[in-house]
């Protein structure tokens, strides 16, 4: 019954909340699942993630970001994603390669082909079975983040965040069979139920 499900979206979209909600729902049904996140799913990932989000170094290049996020990613794929999928688990990841494509590609302006190639090397070609995009207007999402100090990415200008959102929507349009786009302005309960209905379809196909 192995499935690889990723959650994506811009700042303040609620993807972490929904990833946790799905994990809890599967666990209550005794469906084997594991929840991870990028870049913090492994000890190395946590160190790299803290530095990438909170460093005061203003000279970090987009390519450096791309390579460091993928260094964390290859560790996560090796330690968490592949081993658990091989044992029949459902793996839920809060962010994956699509985050890098939109943040470093569409957002920072790196060549998309290069980003895709590096992502593929880091993941050994592992693609999600389903990617849930929690889509939210940029201003609405950022307004939800006021409770804490903004990280490097949250501090970017609005134009950057608009490019990220547009990148996500373009990726979803190009591969609709992999993506589930959900209006993240709806209530948490409504969003969770939409996601669950899609997961049930996938589970029934796996069992069948």
Summarize the structure.
With 208 residues, the protein is an alpha/beta fold.
Please describe what this structure looks like.
By secondary structure, the chain is an alpha/beta fold. The protein has one domain (about 5-205): 3-Layer(aba) Sandwich (Rossmann fold). It has eight helices and five strands. It has helices spanning about 15-30, 45-55, 60-85, 95-105, 110-125, 140-145, 160-175, 190-205; strands at about 5-10, 35, 90-95, 130-135, 180-185. The termini are close together. About 40% of the residues are buried.
Would you identify the CATH architecture?
A: 3-Layer(aba) Sandwich
Largest pleated sheet: 5 strands, parallel
What is the spatial order of strands in the main beta sheet? 2-3-1-4-5
- Please, how many domains? 1
- Residue share in β-strands: 5-15%
How many helices in DSSP terms? 8
> What is the radius of gyration?
16 Å
Name the CATH class.
Alpha Beta
CATH fold call: Rossmann fold
Separation of the first and last Cα atoms: 10 Å
**SS elements, strand count:** 5
Fraction in helix? 55-70%
Output the CATH homologous superfamily: P-loop containing nucleotide triphosphate hydrolases
Please state the overall shape, judged from the principal axes of the Cα atoms. globular
- The ordered H/E elements are EHEHHEHHEHHEH
Overall mean pLDDT score?
95
Low-confidence stretches: none
Helix/strand structural class? alpha/beta
